[in-house]
Amino acid sequence: MSYDTITVESRDKVTLVTINRPQALNALNTQVLEDLIAAFAAFEKDDTQGCLVLTGSGDKAFAAGADIKEMADKPAAEFYNEDFFARWTSNLVRTTRKPWIAAVNGFALGGGCEVAMMADFILASEKAKFGQPEIKLGVAPGMGGSQRLTRAVGKAKAMEMCLTGRMMDAEEAERSGLVARVVPHDQLLEDAVKTAAAIAAMPPMAAKVNKEMVNAAFETFLDQGILHERRLFQILAATEDKAEGMAAFIEKRDGEWKGR
Ligand code: CO8
């Protein structure tokens, strides 16, 4: 399948998706959304693929936000009636049950930061910069940024960033819990694909369940999250991969996964 605004390639069990509008710092217009929805759906369906990496083309940006030129003249009623931005969350977060990583190679601002935060975790290059500068445009985050950023870095930093629009560099983002790891700029992609390959080599159903459990901690109260975890663990305990994984450990060999 070919796309207008992204490139997609498979590296063994890893799908690498690159937002490809470097002239607009990979700003997220409607076509990027449509292309990403299609690419994520194809990844989700393809049993040969176990983990996805999303990154931005060029040396400067992961994505510098939703496309301001596309939004500038859009009336409020259209934002509401189209429920603009809702499909990002329903497709990239809800219906993608396999793990995916955002490899942030530069600016991740506004919607770009919000899409990065939809990933299961973020790996950042030393050049990465995160921010929610929407206030400077007279608006506010529209794709979950005020909620996910606050949960990731806490109220003080999230509030300061949303109210001033200031950017956070990679080192501060790691210190604040927004990103899993910072890596040298020229090693970002290699590291992200290697990390994704390690995840893709795991028992596939266990990977989905682990993702669902950690997300429950983000989305529910503690008691509900712990109950959710226990029930999912009990389901995994009935899988062939659980029997195989434990047998492989005891027999000192690698496991062979069936995804059930
Ligand atoms: N949208 C459209 N075009 C963009 C965007 C963007 N978000 N960001 C950059 N571009 C374009 C520039 O217009 C420029 O194009 P051209 O060459 O045709 O003039 C090109 O990319 C290069 O950008 P710059 O020349 O500005 O590059 P600099 O290195 O000087 O600056 C910055 C880099 C600091 C990243 C700067 O481009 C910038 O501030 N960009 C905008 C960042 C921003 O505000 N992002 C948030 C957008 S809003 C959003 O994401 C969520 C909105 C929720 C709204 C909810 C409404 C209900």
From TrEMBL:
An example Gene Ontology biological process: fatty acid beta-oxidation
The keyword Lipid metabolism is assigned to this record: yes
Keyword Acetylation: no
Keywords on record: Fatty acid metabolism, Lipid metabolism, Lyase
Matches recorded under SUPFAM superfamilies: ClpP/crotonase (SSF52096)
Known catalytic reactions: a 4-saturated-(3S)-3-hydroxyacyl-CoA = a (3E)-enoyl-CoA + H2O; a (3S)-3-hydroxyacyl-CoA = a (2E)-enoyl-CoA + H2O
Cited Gene3D superfamilies: 2-enoyl-CoA Hydratase, Chain A, domain 1 (3.90.226.10), Lyase 2-enoyl-coa Hydratase, Chain A, domain 2 (1.10.12.10)
Enzyme type, top EC level: lyase
Gene Ontology molecular function terms on file: enoyl-CoA hydratase activity
UniProt xrefs under Pfam families: ECH_1
Chain ranges passing through the membrane: none
Family: Belongs to the enoyl-CoA hydratase/isomerase family.
Job of this protein: Could possibly oxidize fatty acids using specific components.
Protein's name according to its UniProt entry: enoyl-CoA hydratase
